[in-house]
Write a structure and sequence with these properties.
about 350 residues; alpha/beta; 434 Repressor (Amino-terminal Domain); Rossmann fold; 15 helices; transcription cis-regulatory region binding
Length: about 350
């Protein structure tokens, strides 16, 4: 910032309500308000040097566009709404997903608003609110169902959106998903390579699309690698960790106890380990387990558990790119992506001193 601009900064009039405005930037740079506005919008008739000067001042004083004013002028909110359930917070999904989304939005005019809701309530509620109030330019949803009423509603109302997960309803829409079918198939492979033959799956709830994906991979793996399923449908990954632990402890104490477990949830795997040990058994000698995880924590604490990494931060980045693309009018079939599980090698044990 040159001396002249610094002097203006010292003498600048107090911004409205203490918030820097276009008028503040205009005063500090000696430019007109219209020029400042066009420079911030990267208008082609504004020189690169002027744009750089305006952006530098805007950054230094913490300028943020007035959303109400932007909405009045353009009809846009510059808001992306991430609709998440409380269950996703419990599963450790929210934080890395938000980080991934904000990494992409940081270079755009968009801001992220997280809209939480309970899966026990009407899932259309948050979507209707966004549609009725015009609260966002685009929406990211998860916990996708094969025939998802939210997808139907947003498609009919032409609200740009992207789903974390796929649907089976004949509507072509943007999505990012994790290949749960391949995860389950490869998990069965790993277990049978260790000689395990009686396998159980801690699966997603049956109303979600990735339940069928994971189940398909698990059953295909059983057939290809010569293993059998231990029937168990008392709990799924949506149940509390206490419920999962108690139900699996009963299973591990029964005559039908499995010798291999595929867990569709990293947090659920913690409850499974507790159940195995409460039943007087150990992971490794008595039963092997493969689980997908969003971080390294379980691998640090229980290196005997085989893990496959699901990159939730990557999912956030892909979802953000897809919803922006949908807002910009790109064909939805070009805004679809599928990430693959990454098998994690066991952590090397610390050397004894």
């Amino acid at each position: 910032m040159d001396g002249k601009t610094k002097n203006r900064a010292a003498a600048a009039p107090p911004p409205d309500g203490g918030r820097p405005t276009l008028k503040t930037i205009a005063f500090m740079t000696g430019l007109g308000i219209t020029t400042v506005s066009r420079a911030l919008k990267d208008a082609p008739d504004i020189g690169a040097e002027t744009k750089e000067r305006v952006r530098l001042v805007a950054k230094q004083i913490g300028y943020q566009p007035n959303r109400a004013g932007v909405r009045l002028r353009t009809g846009k909110t510059n808001v992306i709404s991430l609709v998440l359930t409380l269950e996703e917070e419990i599963m450790g999904i929210t934080s890395p997903m938000v980080v991934g989304i904000t990494e992409i939005l940081a270079g755009t005019q968009y801001h992220l608003v997280v809209t939480p809701y309970s899966s026990t309530k009407d899932p259309l509620g948050p979507i209707r609110y966004i549609l009725d109030t015009g609260a966002a330019d685009g929406v990211i949803i998860s916990r996708t169902e094969p025939h998802d009423a939210r997808v139907t509603l947003m498609t009919e109302r032409r609200l740009p959106f992207v789903t974390h997960g796929r649907t089976e309803m004949g509507i072509v829409h943007p999505f990012h998903d994790f290949d749960n079918e391949r995860f389950a198939y490869e998990a069965v492979r790993r277990l049978t390579e260790r000689g395990r033959r009686r396998l159980v799956l801690l699966e997603p709830p049956p109303n979600l699309t990735f339940h069928s994906h994971m189940r398909t991979g698990f059953e295909r793996g059983l057939k290809d690698f010569g293993a059998e399923a231990v029937s168990f449908h008392h709990v799924n990954i949506d149940h509390s960790l206490v419920a999962i632990r108690d139900a699996f402890e009963q299973l591990m104490r029964s005559v039908d106890a499995p010798d291999g477990i595929v867990s569709g949830s990293g947090s659920g795997a913690v409850a499974l380990v507790a159940a195995i040990e409460s039943a007087g058994k150990k992971v490794g000698p008595d039963v092997d387990m493969v689980t997908k995880v969003p971080s390294d924590f379980l691998r640090w604490l229980r290196p005997e558990v085989m893990t496959m990494y699901e990159d939730i931060r990557l999912a956030g980045r892909e979802l953000a790119k897809a919803v922006i693309g949908h807002i910009e009018g790109k064909p939805p079939e070009t805004l679809q992506s599928l990430s693959q599980p990454e098998f994690q090698r066991p952590m090397s044990k610390a050397r004894k001193v």
